Amino acid sequence: MRRIFFNLKHIFDFLRGRPVFELPYYREAELSRLMNLFAHVDLDAWRGMRILEVGAGLGHLGDVFAQLGFDVTSSDGRPEHVERMKARGRDAIVLDLDEQGVEGLEGYDVILAFGVLYHLGNPERFLESCGQHAKVLLLESAVSDAAEPKLDMVKEIAAGWRGQDQALNEIGCRPSVSWVEATCRRAGFDRIRDISNPIADWEIGTFDWSPTGHGETRSGAKNYRRMWVMERTTPE
Ligand SMILES: C[S@@+](CC[C@H](N)C(=O)[O-])C[C@H]1O[C@@H](n2cnc3c(N)ncnc32)[C@H](O)[C@@H]1O
């Protein structure tokens, strides 16, 4: 029932022509996830580090780090989102993570990757490239509750109003928690902190779920999510 109501609200916003990133549930998701992140990390430990935001949408999360004094470049696979960020004066580049991960981008210490891993057809390559190029990966994603390391691929809508925040290349995934952690460890992140907490919950996303081990990805209207701080403490 809540899902039907949510979809009806979506249709109404579509008719009003609002970008999906400006809908109230998106703003709620941005604030709740940042609140959780900031409750769990010492931002001062990263002072002076350059941040690359990936799968940024319109870059609202990166905006907050920029306001806090960080040097932030935001990126997205969709050129129209990047143009909107640039129009606001933000440093922004087009970056298709399925195509190149973060390879070829030197000088970034922190990768901010919220809400994008599960929109990738090649998430392993992306995580591997993060391990090669960054010291810290701030990762947040939809996940499945499968017990074993498992990556289920899903088809997504890539075009039109409903596609503007979905998989650029039409194929996304639902990784299990153990898959993400094992892949990040192989990528070189030796300190993995799961900071998932209900503080980060919003209308259609929850960090407050108990695994059944069956590979479920949602309960009712709420997607299962996880948030991690991945760090590489040993030199490359
Ligand atoms: C769900 S939105 C997340 C926006 C923001 N990071 C957040 O968490 O609120 C996913 C974003 O990832 C982008 N995206 C999808 N596939 C991508 C890819 N292969 N490479 C880079 N960005 C991609 C979409 O264009 C969209 O802006």
Outline the structure in words.
It is built from 8 helices and 11 strands. With 236 residues, the chain is of the alpha/beta class. The protein is globular, with a radius of gyration of 17 Å. It starts with a helix and ends in a 5-residue tail after the last strand. The model has no long low-confidence stretch (mean pLDDT 93). Bound molecules: S-adenosylmethionine. S-adenosylmethionine binds next to α2 and α5. The site of S-adenosylmethionine has 23 residues, from α2 and α5.
Quick description:
By secondary structure, the chain is of the alpha/beta class. The protein has helices at residues 2-15, 24-40, 60-67, 79-87, 97-100, 123-133, 160-163, 177-186; strands at residues 50-53, 71-76, 92-94, 110-114, 136-142, 151-155, 171-175, 191-194, 205-206, 218-219, 222-231.
What general outline do the C-alpha atoms trace?
globular
Low-confidence stretches: none
How many DSSP helices? 8
- Order of SSEs, N→C? HHEHEHEHEHEEHEHEEEE
Strand content: 15-25%
Number of domains: 1
